[in-house]
From TrEMBL, chain A:
Similarity comment text for this entry: Belongs to the binding-protein-dependent transport system permease family.
Location(s) in or outside the cell: Cell membrane
Protein name, UniProt field: Carbohydrate ABC transporter permease
Transmembrane segments: 20-40, 80-105, 117-141, 147-168, 189-214, 260-279
Domain ABC transmembrane type-1: 81-279
Record's keyword annotation contains ATP-binding: no
Keyword Transport in annotation: yes
Membrane topology recorded in Swiss-Prot or TrEMBL: Multi-pass membrane protein
Pfam family, one: BPD_transp_1
Alphabetically ordered keywords of this record: Cell membrane, Membrane, Transmembrane, Transmembrane helix, Transport
Gene3D superfamilies: MetI-like
Coiled-coil ranges from the UniProt annotation: none
TrEMBL record, chain B:
Intracellular or extracellular location(s): Cell membrane
Transmembrane segment boundaries: 37-63, 91-121, 142-166, 186-208, 229-250, 289-310
Protein name per its UniProtKB record: ABC transporter permease
Membrane topology according to the record: Multi-pass membrane protein
Keywords annotated in UniProt: Cell membrane, Membrane, Transmembrane, Transmembrane helix, Transport
Location of region: Disordered: 1-27
Similarity comment: Belongs to the binding-protein-dependent transport system permease family.
Residue ranges of domain ABC transmembrane type-1 in the record: 96-310
Pfam family of the protein (one): BPD_transp_1
Length: 294, 325
């Protein structure tokens, strides 16, 4: 046991308290990790073992990537992954560009009309557009069955905008003033001074956007007639409700469909788990700057 | 539009001030100076105008007998018919009841959970352990509801892990997924699993700002751990607790859509319908767009009223409340 620096007034807690805390934390961590682990091992287990065990496996007796090979073989899941990746990449880029532009302009104190514009934007946070009117607008601008229907209606998130504007406002005005004296225009200042200083907040907001785009599934149901355009979330939902139907039946007819289903869950989760460690150190700071402002 | 344009103020002031830097540039100058900025904000403002204000205007279909072929312009106006129908619709009231009940359960069980977890994490002195636990509990926030629902089904479903264990132990299985009676506890448990860790962030930040000297003084006075928690920690983070509580009240009807949309079918409408899914099923599944829009508009108006009221309450408690106002 290593010795941690307890404050002098506190004293080391008793053994009972420490043990209780360790157990509590271990249980909490297990509650998060274990379901994820159960999914991964079921997806990678030998199909026969999954069948024998009634649809789940905690520790595969034999590892088998067959389920992945099957769904990555150019079928609907493969296409859905590509669709999601594309929407995430394009959407995040567009969202960041527009959010940075709007946040920067609204962070300049001298912008004429800045205040009313800011209020215009913030009001949308109080009164979100209803599901049905938004559907009419999206159709009205000709986005039905277009990938853009998963991007354009969500281009800017007010919370992300407020976070970013708050960060831009905290950049010292003198820095920009100096650049202005050197003859830099707004674009040059944005590119050479503001953006390099804002890497952390751009990373956080970019992550939030990317996760939102990657996780989007519902809109494809109402906007897409063409199921081949479905992103991974929508396809996964199909598997999930399929699983629900099987569970309702109560009979143990579930077999390797479980491996397939869990493999889709893993593939839908993987990108998030992969970028998570890299961006994690930024987002607490990012969220707090935003939370304090709003 | 502007017919009366006074002579530029700088003309009068010229003698007093250096000509190069007028104290307050006129409107035209300011607009000219901001050209690049207007270009930068244009896409964003267009987005809000089209997809937010356009949709806000589209709410007029709540007062129409909307026919897709005719569009908003030519559909017949029906006044408040949809709203009258809404108040007499038992399915609507059932959705309201479910929404309010789930929101209440969330308030009782979900709201205190992050506070408890934050207190636990804060009391861990070891930096490595705390960071590790934090990174683990933040993770579910980034998973989509589809994944969370799939995980819960894999764990608790009829052919899931927990039922498998129970069978191994010789105990009969429990049917959690798909049981209307257990639906509400289930969805609250899912919210706790997904968002509890993330919600600790603000509490942890507040706890980190509590003055160390207060603890010292309390400890010297002989206060036990519990007394320090009760008399120092909780009062110190009271503003944050109240603020979050008030915000939560302001969003009372917005308990989320995707989670319920994904699971409503497994328990049926009577137990699983909330306001947002009601809008979806009447509008998109049944094609009753005008009525669905009316319900959506009703929810939006109540939502704004709740936020306004919550903000007033926050002010009464002497807190800053929500942004602006």
């Amino acid at each position: 046991m290593s010795r941690y620096a307890y404050p002098a007034w506190q004293g080391r807690p008793s053994l009972v308290v420490r043990t209780a805390k360790i157990i509590a934390l271990a249980v909490i961590v297990a509650l998060v990790i274990f379901p994820l682990w159960a999914v991964v091992s079921t997806s990678l287990a030998d199909p026969q073992q999954v069948i024998d065990n009634g649809g789940w496996v905690i520790w595969p007796s034999q590892w088998d990537a067959g389920a992945y090979r099957e769904i990555l073989d150019g079928g609907i899941v493969t296409r859905a992954l590509l669709v999601s990746a594309g929407i995430t990449a394009v959407g995040t880029t567009l969202s960041l560009t527009c959010t940075i532009g709007l946040a920067y302009a609204l962070s300049r104190p001298r912008l004429y009309g800045g205040k009313p514009l800011l209020l215009l934007v913030l009001f949308t946070f109080l009164f979100p557009p209803g599901m049905v009117p938004l559907f009419l607008v999206v159709n009205g601008v000709g986005l039905f069955d277009q990938y853009a229907a998963l991007v354009l209606p969500f281009l800017i998130n007010v919370f992300n905008l407020v976070v970013m504007r708050g960060f831009f406002q905290s950049i010292p005005e003198e820095l920009l003033e100096a650049a202005r004296l050197d003859g830099a225009g707004e674009f040059a200042m944005l590119r050479r001074i503001v953006l390099p200083l804002s890497k952390a907040v751009i990373a956080v907001v970019g992550l939030f956007y990317a996760v939102a785009y990657w996780n989007r599934f519902f809109e494809a149901i109402i906007y897409f007639n063409d199921q081949t355009k479905w992103p991974i979330g929508t396809v996964l939902r199909q598997y999930v409700t399929g699983g629900a139907a099987l569970a309702e039946g109560g009979e143990g007819t579930v077999s390797s469909p479980q491996s397939i289903q869990m493999a889709v869950v893993v593939l839908a989760t993987l990108p998030i788990v992969c970028v998570y460690p890299f961006l994690q150190r930024y987002f607490v700071k990012g969220v707090l700057t935003g939370a304090l402002k709003s | 539009m502007v017919t009366v344009t006074p002579a530029p103020a700088s003309a009068d002031r010229k003698p007093d001030e250096p000509a190069a830097a007028p104290a307050r540039p006129g409107r035209r100058q300011r607009i000219r100076a901001g050209r690049a900025l207007y270009l930068l904000l244009l896409p964003g403002v267009l987005y809000f105008l089209v997809f937010h204000y356009g949709a806000l205007f589209g709410n007029v279909l709540a007062f129409q007998d909307y026919v897709p072929f005719l569009g908003l312009r030519d559909s017949a106006w029906v006044g408040f018919t949809h709203f009258e129908r809404m108040f007499g619709d038992p399915l609507f009231w059932s959705a309201v009841g479910n929404t309010v009940l789930i929101a209440l359960l969330q308030l009782i069980f979900f709201f205190p959970a992050p506070l408890a977890l934050a207190l636990l994490l804060h009391s861990i002195v070891g930096d490595t352990i705390r960071r590790f636990v934090q990174s683990v509990v933040y993770l579910p926030h980034f998973l989509s509801w589809v994944i969370v629902v799939a995980l819960f089904q894999h764990m608790l479903g009829g052919a899931g892990v927990v039922n498998g264990w129970l069978a191994d132990l010789g105990v009969g299985g429990i049917q959690v997924i798909g049981d209307p009676d257990l639906y509400k506890p289930l969805v609250v448990a899912q919210v706790i699993w997904k968002e509890c860790g993330w919600a600790t962030i603000i509490f942890l930040a507040a706890l980190a700002n509590v003055d160390e000297q207060m603890y010292e003084a309390a400890a010297i006075d002989g206060a036990s751990w519990w007394r320090r928690l009760w008399h120092v920690t909780l009062p110190a983070i009271r503003p944050v607790i109240i603020l979050l509580l008030v915000l939560r009240l302001g969003e009372f009807l917005s308990i989320g859509f995707e989670q319920f949309f994904l699971q409503r079918q497994s328990v049926g409408a009577e137990a699983g319908e909330v306001l947002d899914t009601f809008v979806y099923y009447t509008g998109f599944a049944a094609g009753d767009f005008g009525y669905a829009a009316a319900v959506g508009l009703f929810k939006g108006v109540i939502g704004v009223a709740l936020i306004y009221a919550a903000n007033r309450v926050a002010h009464r408690f002497g807190e800053q409340g929500i942004y602006k106002s």
